[in-house]
From TrEMBL:
This is G protein-activated inward rectifier potassium channel 1. PANTHER family: G PROTEIN-ACTIVATED INWARD RECTIFIER POTASSIUM CHANNEL 1 (PTHR11767:SF99), INWARD RECTIFIER POTASSIUM CHANNEL (PTHR11767). It catalyses: K(+)(in) = K(+)(out). The record marks 134 as: Role in the control of polyamine-mediated channel gating and in the blocking by intracellular magnesium. It comes from Myiagra hebetior. The keyword Disulfide bond does not apply. Pfam families: IRK (PF01007), IRK_C (PF17655). Residues 155-320 form the Inward rectifier potassium channel C-terminal domain. Belongs to the inward rectifier-type potassium channel (TC 1.A.2.1) family. KCNJ3 subfamily.
């Protein structure tokens, strides 16, 4: 079947774009720090380089301007003449003095003298401004690098979901796994059914969200994710799939969004992984192949069979039927 537009991609990216914000776009500037963190890496690096480059050039120009107005650029800096900054004769030397001061290098060749009150004021302003810029930009880069988004890359979902019987009940199932040895603390899984519907009053809801019960009442949604687990949604009278049969599945149009949340054990930060299954990725009458085997003193997980399924006898009728 031709692949249709998804609400959530298989990699978890949401296909939603906000447009025609009008005056509401100013809200992004009111939370500028979060806006900067949410930007792509190339824009973050560009802003990082431009901010430091512009700030350095402006501050170096101010030091050069003081030396120019005092006439230090054309005077011999000896015992008979005390300049504002020793050994600053042109813009490159003023720029080097600023960098030495900002980076606290202090080679000792260029230094500020006590007979320059305007230079002392500029020095204090430079120290305060440098601290603010460093705290803002370096803090932004640190938070962006420490975001747990990449941890979600090592959380796997099966490529397809299956419908078959388990414990004499018709169930919708899919598989999740963790590729790392570090655990996800307090891992919890949720499922949303995205489907268009029309209310009895005639209102059309294009992307109506309905909760799929994956063990909320029994605690089965709280996962101990040290090995691949098969998540099960029991299709009963309370399920949105109560009237779904093998035949009607071919004509249905829906999307199941799976959300796995947990705390990264190594960093203590909350991580979220997402995926989705459309109706053509739900296999009726299939079951997942086992991936666990007992070796000499440990359990082995064979991830080559993680997505594999096989057919099992399953009634083609809906639970209602």
């Amino acid at each position: 079947r031709r692949e249709r537009q998804r609400f959530v991609d298989k990699n978890g990216r949401c296909n939603v774009q906000h447009g025609n914000l009008g005056g509401e776009s100013s809200r992004y500037l009111s939370d500028f720090f979060t806006t900067l963190v949410d930007l792509k890496w190339r824009w973050n690096l560009l802003i990082f380089l431009l901010t430091y480059t512009v700030a350095w050039l402006v501050m170096a120009s101010m030091w050069w301007g003081i030396a120019y107005l005092r006439g230090d650029l054309h005077q011999a800096h000896g015992d008979s003449y005390s300049p504002c900054v020793a050994n600053v004769y042109n813009f490159p030397s003023a720029f080097l003095f600023f960098v030495e001061t900002e980076a606290t290098i202090g080679y000792g060749h260029r230094y500020i003298t006590e007979r320059c009150p305007e230079g002392i004021v500029l020095f204090l302003f430079q120290s305060l401004l440098g601290s603010v810029v460093d705290a803002f930009l370096i803090g932004c880069m640190f938070i962006k690098m420490s975001q747990p988004k990449k941890r979600a890359e090592t959380l796997m979902f099966s490529r397809a979901a299956v419908i078959s019987q388990r414990d004499a009940k018709l169930c919708l199932m899919f598989r999740v796994g963790n590729l790392r040895n570090s655990h996800m603390v307090s891992a919890q899984i949720r499922c949303k059914l995205i489907k268009s519907r029309q209310t009895p009053e005639g209102e059309f809801l294009p992307l109506d969200q309905c909760e799929l019960d994956v063990g909320f009442g029994t605690g089965a949604d709280q996962l101990f994710l040290v090995s691949p687990l098969t998540i099960c949604h029991e299709i009963n009278s309370e399920s949105p799939f109560f009237c779904l049969s093998q035949r009607s599945l071919r004509s249905e149009q829906f999307e199941i969004v799976v959300i796995l949340e947990g705390i990264v054990e190594t960093t203590g930060m909350t991580c979220q992984a997402r995926t989705s299954y459309t109706e053509d990725e739900v296999l009726w009458g299939h079951r997942f192949l086992p991936v666990m085997s007992l070796e000499d003193g440990f359990f082995r997980v064979d991830y080559s069979q993680f997505h594999a399924t096989f057919e099992v006898p399953t009634p083609p009728y809906s639970v209602k039927e």
